[in-house]
Amino acid sequence: MQIVNVIGIDEVGRGALCGPVYMAGTKLSSDYPLFTQKQSTEQFTKKYKNLDFVRDSKLLQPKLREKACQLISTHQIPNLTLQANNFLIDKYGIGVCLSLMMKIIIFWLLDKNIQIFVDGKIKIRNQFNPDLLKEICKENNLNIPLKEFNKLIISEKSEKSLLKTQSI
Fold it and tell me: Collapsing DSSP states into helix, strand and coil, what is residue 149?
């Protein structure tokens, strides 16, 4: 399988005593300097076997973080940032909110032949309370077709931070 697109996802605010939690994702396309269309997953993993800079944003040096932000803006790379307010967190739980936000980001940015890197160990659930989906979509001004959204099945591969998607 060739890497054509990569989705990177991270969250912030989880350690806060109260208040919203945010999650952002961006799709790094094949023209992004780190990736080439001819690169296989194996070649990518071999070349970038130390992916700490991808897997933990706390280890990302400020200059590299700024450069990544500039690349996302300059190349108009698709991205999405979501929030769940403290009322949703209290009602449904922070883990459920984060898991759903991650699935929304994947759904929003999904393309064929894609790899997804997740910063952390958030478990993505495939089934959600439809009311929570409506509330998060309303809070973030999104329109997600429930029928299509439920067709997206996400399963973990052997590596904890590398996921695969399957659309049925």
Answer: helix
Query: Residue-wise pLDDT tens for the chain (168 aa)?
Result: 445 567 778 888 876 667 789 998 888 665 555 544 445 555 555 554 444 445 556 666 777 777 777 777 776 678 889 999 989 999 998 889 998 998 899 888 876 656 666 656 667 777 788 899 999 999 999 998 888 888 777 765 544 444 544 443
Structure tokens at 51: 């992916």
Determine the structural domain holding residue 57 and report its residue range: 5-167
Query: Distance between CA 5 and CA 97 in Å, rounded?
Result: 25
d(CA 49, CA 55): 11
Which CATH number is 66's domain given?
3.30.420
